[in-house]
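Data card: per-record layout.
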Amino acid sequence: MLIMSELLCEAVDLRPGQRVLDVATGSGNTALAAARRFCDVTGIDYVPALLERGRERAAAERLEVIFREGDTEDIPFPDASFDVVLSTVGVMFAPDQEKAAGELLRVCRPGGKIGLANWTPDGFAGEMGSLFGGYLPLSPGLKPPVLWGTEERLRELLGSGAEHIAVVRRSFMFRYRSVQHYLDVLQTHLGPTRETFLALDPARRENLVRELVGLIGRFDRSEDVTMVVPSDYLEVVVTRS
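The structure for this 241-residue chain is written out next.
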């Protein structure tokens, strides 16, 4: 998803020397994109293995990025610590959406920017999330992550602290050697989907695979043995009031 990170950095119009926080950084895609623009960058995530991978990537590119453990719902920095706060398909997965949104606003200085990339409910990734949710439902009271991919919900979550919210609909392309290759990745490498597969009995696991193949088939535009699937997302730029 490197291209999403690069485009998001351009959307918020990063300037060298700005203090930038990448929330739910994972292995650092967006943090590294900001560092390439000579910003003062910190990335936080709650998964130590992903943070270590980010450090390795930064070292390989000779980029200066601070990676540290941190909770999206309790960001470990004082108010107004950053000029720009970013998150690429990250903060949208926080269980308490209101609390996470409040933290984004809190650590961004007045006049600063919050940049987000969030899957839409009607795109491939959004529909896949709903499909998985049918097999392993959210805990009672939790809202679907893809609500972050709707303008209405974004304004509910961030409007109180925003001077302006700009939204652009974009598309990311999932490219894999084959549908089976992608299914293998879902079952072995991606934490949330892997856990869902492990929690299912063989019959339900087989049903999930069958439904996934059908979903992929609806979106796939490869016309060959590979998988080329577009997935819409919202690119969001919030100017902090």
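Known properties of this structure: The two ends are 30 Å apart (CA to CA). The chain has a mean pLDDT of 96.

See the next section for split statistics.
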